[in-house]
From TrEMBL:
<dbReference type="GO" id="GO:0140647">
    <property type="term" value="P:P450-containing electron transport chain"/>
</dbReference>
<keyword id="KW-0411">Iron-sulfur</keyword>
<dbReference type="InterPro" id="IPR001055">
    <property type="entry name" value="Adrenodoxin-like"/>
</dbReference>
<keyword id="KW-0408">Iron</keyword>
<dbReference type="GO" id="GO:0046872">
    <property type="term" value="F:metal ion binding"/>
</dbReference>
<keyword id="KW-0001">2Fe-2S</keyword>
<dbReference type="InterPro" id="IPR012675">
    <property type="entry name" value="Beta-grasp_dom_sf"/>
</dbReference>
<feature type="signal peptide">
    <location>
        <begin position="1"/>
        <end position="24"/>
    </location>
</feature>
<dbReference type="GO" id="GO:0005739">
    <property type="term" value="C:mitochondrion"/>
</dbReference>
<keyword id="KW-0479">Metal-binding</keyword>
<dbReference type="InterPro" id="IPR001041">
    <property type="entry name" value="2Fe-2S_ferredoxin-type"/>
</dbReference>
<keyword id="KW-0732">Signal</keyword>
<protein>
    <submittedName>
        <fullName>Ferredoxin</fullName>
    </submittedName>
</protein>
<feature type="region of interest" description="Disordered">
    <location>
        <begin position="48"/>
        <end position="69"/>
    </location>
</feature>
<dbReference type="InterPro" id="IPR036034">
    <property type="entry name" value="PDZ_sf"/>
</dbReference>
<dbReference type="GO" id="GO:0051537">
    <property type="term" value="F:2 iron, 2 sulfur cluster binding"/>
</dbReference>
<dbReference type="InterPro" id="IPR036010">
    <property type="entry name" value="2Fe-2S_ferredoxin-like_sf"/>
</dbReference>
Length: 344
């Protein structure tokens, strides 16, 4: 995301401010919320005013076009607690079509780590009991209540045990629902708050009125970005060594090859559409960018109808410009032959 230069300064200042708190903060307050949750009933109106911002699209890091069988269990990419403590940071984000202006959680190593969003559902509200979550403040101590508070553990037998919440998660919103009612009856935003403000927000939720109330937690979770290692092989006549590169899941194969300086378009190939030479600029109409996938075809997206028709006699071939590596957030290894027309 691009920021105006003035905003960049502000972002830098805020990020630096919070980072300083992270470095200077001694995290020694893991406390069960079970006692706090039932005793705090004060309203936290400021937080509630921003509670809807997490109703933005839940991405799960996967987009929305894959079928169920394409999807991988994203939890294999979770960061362990110790690493998550080092990675969490907070960023001021300006308003856009996707998100309201505010301070949001981020990852320090954003090139390799991303913040995913999940919903934890079905946490039953129990009279006289709390969430059963141990919280750890890793940044805080500010008068404005800003900070970073994460889940450190779950109370055995508590309401949250077995619901999918994990150490290292940050709770960004807690919503109260009643069975049979489509809409939440109350919610609080808890993203980027210190421990005290988090507890105050949770305590501001209304008291339990009926036995059929449950909570939905929107949580932020740090995950490493899955990678695909691609070994490129060149036609024997070219006498070139293999090239191996590492791509993030979701990268376009042709674009990545061009960026890395890997020869792509075959001088021998004729355009599929016109019979002439020259590529179509990644429009999927010339087939001059074709590669032969010797290993790891399952790591690519399914070819579209046009690509299937154009390459119907070449089951190993894919148009690089139409190929997304690590599709569905998969990772693994691929072996790809460039200029397949020059291979015997
Ligand atoms: S560049 Fe033309 S089909 Fe890929």
């Amino acid at each position: 995301m691009k920021f105006p230069s003035m905003t960049l300064l502000l972002v830098g200042a805020l990020a630096a401010s919070i980072s300083e708190e992270v470095e200077g903060f001694t995290a020694t307050n893991p406390v069960s919320l079970s006692s706090v949750y039932k005793s705090q009933q004060a309203r936290f109106h400021q937080l509630q005013s921003t509670a809807t911002r997490d109703d933005q699209k839940i991405n799960n890091g996967q987009g929305n076009t894959e079928s169920e069988e394409d999807r991988v269990d994203m939890n294999i990419y979770n960061l362990p607690l110790e690493q998550a403590i080092q990675e969490w940071t907070a960023n001021l984000v300006t308003e856009s079509a996707m998100v309201a202006e505010g301070i949001y959680l981020g990852a320090k190593s954003s090139r390799d780590v991303f913040v995913d969003t999940e919903r934890i559902i079905g946490i039953k509200r129990r009279q006289g009991q709390g969430l059963g979550i141990e919280l750890l403040e890793i940044a805080g101590g500010r008068e404005d209540g800003l900070g970073i508070t994460i889940v450190e553990g779950l109370v055995p037998g508590g309401a949250s045990e077995g619901r999918g919440l994990l150490p290292g998660d940050c709770i960004s919103k807690i919503a109260v629902h009643r069975t049979g009612q489509p809409d939440e009856i109350a919610s609080v935003a808890t993203e980027c708050l210190g421990w005290d403000a988090t507890v105050e927000a949770i305590g501001s939720l209304p008291a339990i009125e009926t036995p059929n109330e449950y909570l939905i937690l929107t949580i932020k979770r740090l995950r490493r970005k899955p990678k695909v290692t691609v070994n490129f092989q060149y036609p024997p006549d070219q006498g070139e060594e293999d090239t191996t590169i590492e791509l993030f899941a979701g990268e376009n194969l042709r674009r990545a090859m061009l960026v890395k300086g890997i020869k792509l378009n075959d001088p021998l190939s004729k355009r599929f559409d016109s019979g002439g030479s020259g590529d179509c600029g990644a429009e999927g109409t010339c087939a001059t960018c074709s590669v032969s996938v010797m290993e790891g075809m399952d790591l690519l997206n399914e070819p579209g109808l046009t690509e299937k028709q154009m390459l119907e006699n070449k089951p190993r071939w894919r148009m690089a410009c139409r190929a997304i590596v690590g599709y569905g957030m998969k990772e693994g290894k691929m072996t790809v032959r460039v200029n397949p027309r020059q291979w015997n």
